[in-house]
Amino acid sequence: MNDAIEYASWVDRLGCCEGCPRRCRVNRLAGELGFCRVDAGIPVAHIGLHFGEEPPISGTRGSGTIFFAGCNLRCVFCQNSQISQETPPERFRRLTPAALAVEMRRLQDRGAHNINFVSPSHMIFQMAEAIRLARQAGLVIPVVYNTNGYDSVAALRQIRGLVDIYLPDLKYLDNAPGKRFSGVDDYADVVPGVLQEMLDQVGCLSLDDDGLAVRGVLVRHLVLPGCLEDSRRCLDFLARLSPDIPVSIMAQYAPRHRADAYPEINRRLSEAEYDQIVDHALRLGLENAFIQELDAADRYLPDFARNDPFGDAPSAPD
Ligand code: SF4
Q1: Which of 4, 117, 168, 226 has the fewest CB atoms within 10 Å, measured from its CB?
Q2: Cα 111 to middle of ligand 1, angstroms
Q3: In the structure, which protein residues have their CB atom closer than 6 angstroms to any atom of ligand 1?
Q4: What residue's CA is closest to ligand 1, atom 2?
Q5: What DSSP state is assigned to residue 266?
Q6: Which of 16, 28, 36 maximizes ligand 1 atoms within 8 Å of its Cβ, making it the mutation to test the pocket?
Q7: Residue 234's Cα: distance from chain center in Å?
């Protein structure tokens, strides 16, 4: 199958979209909108070097982040709600796959260690085409798929070989909090198959001699206040999946967006809660764990109203 035919088939899929597990089956090519509210275009909210990812991802020169607008989840505590939920995706700059490929090359030229697609689940086919074009034009750095974990296994199989590093969240393994906090009925049913597919494609994270990620899976788990039972369930699952799997245990929860309407999570995580979860991971033998300071929430929460949302790097000029 040549590249043109392959992309044509991706475009065809946007004509009856099952790009993520929502399976809206809308015609995005004709401008119809599904749950994610994005048509066949590529709305981009921010492009820039970011230094706040895990050390193997950010390195010393930064990760080349590309934030897509819109999302296929509705997390009430979303730290990126300005671009995922509060602003309609059509208000953002719209790129074609070719223009996105140019931006990827520019990030590489600026010294980025990798290209880091943030919230790509609803943009998977457009992203795949951009990767193909960027590779043809000389992109050599790894591509990171930085996702909420609510992905289509079938779509991931279709893009096999294009992504080097998977950076999925494992948010819940209980559908009750998924439904209450993220507006999704079946997250806990879907995410195990997603993680297995990612692991089958690229294995556990591997690093080069400088400690930079070159390939593999690194799972993120954000510990929510008062939800420790589900955090333990997530870690238990990961240990069964592979005790070698690296996991980033995140302490940076802060009650942003609409979390004030949910009293049980309308507070910061306590040090004692976080320590319990880290201890649990170590007891399970998950020794490839990245640990955060509890004040990470103050350092890593972005403000997309600024040119430099993270306050850590200049953004690329428009
Ligand atoms: S990518 Fe968007 S339109 Fe397609 S199935 Fe998911 S939510 Fe629906």
Answers
A1: 4
A2: 33
A3: 17-20, 22-24, 26, 34-36, 72, 122
A4: 36
A5: S
A6: 36
A7: 17
Give the confidence band of 306 by pLDDT, cuts at 50, 70, 90.
confident
Per-position DSSP letters for 207-233, written without gaps between them: E-TTS-EEEEE-EEEEPPTT-HHHHHH
- pLDDT, residue 90, reads 87
Ligand 1, atom 6: closest residue by C-alpha: 20
Cα–Cα distance between 25 and 32 in angstroms, integer?
10
94 three-state secondary structure: strand
C-alpha 145/C-alpha 11 separation (Å) is 20
- Compute the distance from residue 233 Cα to the ligand 1 centre, in Å: 28
Q: What is the pLDDT of residue 225?
A: 97
Which residue is closest in CA terms to ligand 1's atom 1?
A: 122
User: Which residues on adjacent β-strands are paired with residue 250?
Assistant: 222
| Å from CA of 299 to ligand 1 middle | 32
Domains of the chain are: 43-300 (3.20.20.70)
Q: How far is the CA of 155 from the centre of ligand 1 (A)?
A: 11
Q: What's the pLDDT score for residue 86?
A: 86
How much is the mean pLDDT over the chain? 92
- Tell me how far apart the alpha carbons of residues 88 and 67 are, in angstroms, rounded to a whole number: 14
pLDDT surpassing 80 at residue 25: yes
Rounded to the nearest angstrom, the distance between the alpha carbon of 153 and the centre of ligand 1 is 14
- pLDDT tens-digit readout, 131-187: 999 999 999 999 999 999 999 999 999 999 999 999 999 999 999 999 999 999 999
R_g of the chain, CA atoms, integer Å: 18
Q: Looking at beta carbons, which pairs linking 80-86 to residues 24 or more positions away fall under 8 Å?
A: 80/118, 80/119, 80/302, 80/304, 81/256, 81/257, 81/258, 82/45, 82/303, 82/304, 82/305, 83/45, 83/46, 83/304, 84/119, 85/257, 86/257
Which of 72, 85, 184, when mutated, tests ligand 1's pocket best, judged by the most ligand atoms within 8 Å of its CB? 72
